Structures are given as structure tokens and as C-alpha cells.
Amino acid sequence: MRSWRGMLTRERLEAEAWLGYTPGLRRLWASTDQKGMDDQILFDVSEGSEEYEKVAAIFRAQPAVPRAYADMNPGMWSYISIAKIERVENGMQEDGSAEPYFKALQRGVENQ
Hints:
By secondary structure, this protein is mainly α. It is 37% helix and 5% strand.
């Protein structure tokens, strides 16, 4: 199976792997019992935390291959400041959409 992973830098791949490719980000959630069912769904990610650093690394990462478009100087991304990072904790979306989609995709790949 071909993959887009060859277009990403090692740093970005490591950050994505730390965050996780499968449902299970709830380990980072701050909502009650990490269920994402509170009235509050946006939570600040603490600057300096490992989660913050991983998300920032993904945001700033450049592709490992030449860009197909010239919208700006790629080196400028390293100078853009991040005002804040917020985590969306929506348990209904994960339970009713992300998790079933992941399982269907997983079955499809395994059955090939």
C-alpha cells in the first residue's frame, strides 16, 4: 500500500505517532472522566507541555518533498508564533463518527 508518509519529515511523523493515529486521544482529555460530554468542549493545551510541542511541530513541519505551489516562503513557518492551542473534546463525535469510521477502514484494509 502506498502512503503519504513519504512526503512528511521524520519530526512530523514522530509528533503524529505520539499523538496517535487511532481513536485514543482521550488519554490527553481534561473533561470529566475523559468522556468529552461536558458543556465545555474546548480546552487549552498548556504551553510547554509535550502535547503542545507535538502539535506545534506538526503545524510548523514542512513537507519532505518540494512544494507543489508557491504561496509563501516555506522557511517563514518557523517564525510564525502560535497564539494558543486548544483541544476539542467531543465524545459524541468520537463515539458516533471517528471510531466507527476507523473500524470500517481498518476492516477494509485488513480484508485486502
